[in-house]
Amino acid sequence: MPYQMNWMDEDKTILCHTYQSPVTADEVHAAVDTNYAIQNAVNHAVYVISDLRHSKLPLMTLSALASHLESKTPPNQHVVVVLGADAFMKILIGIGKSIAPRTTRNVELLDTMEAALSVIARYKADAAPH
């Protein structure tokens, strides 16, 4: 399987999906659907790490994926941290802010897992009752 998905914590708040090349457009769509099903199975905030550091997603997937993502983004998805986005993906995410605002509202582009976990800790702290 070109992707793996797993919870990174016992409370099931941080969901990590890791892609390995090669990956097809159909596999990316299946991964998104699995990701959303997992998020919808819990009734609390979910923080997603999408690790692309060891893969290259098909170009046609990235553009076609926007409407698929926008129509299905779970309401409990608080942030998506993308690790290893290439220049083209960064441009598409920038464009996505206007065509898929719900999906891209809380997207962070980072390079390391440590940075991702730090950003998620900040989001969790901001969401905690004060």
Structural account:
48% of the residues lie in helices and 22% in strands. By secondary structure, the protein is α/β, with parallel strands linked by helices. It has one domain: Transcription Regulator spoIIAA, CATH 3.30.750.24. Strands 1-2-3-4-5 form a five-stranded mixed sheet, with helices on both faces. Strand 3, helix 2 and strand 4 form a beta-alpha-beta unit. Helix 1 packs parallel to helix 2 and helix 2 packs parallel to helix 3. It is globular, with a radius of gyration of 14 Å. The model has no long low-confidence stretch (mean pLDDT 88).
Gist?
The chain is built from five helices and five strands; from the N terminus they run E-E-H-E-H-E-H-H-E-H.
Strand order across the largest sheet: 1-2-3-4-5
Poorly predicted runs: none
CATH 2nd-level architecture: 2-Layer Sandwich
- Describe the largest sheet: 5 strands, mixed
Give the fraction of residues assigned to helices.
40-55%
Query: What structural class is derived from the secondary structure elements?
Result: alpha/beta
Number of strands: 5
How many domains? Answer: 1
**Average pLDDT figure:** 88
> Count of helices?
5
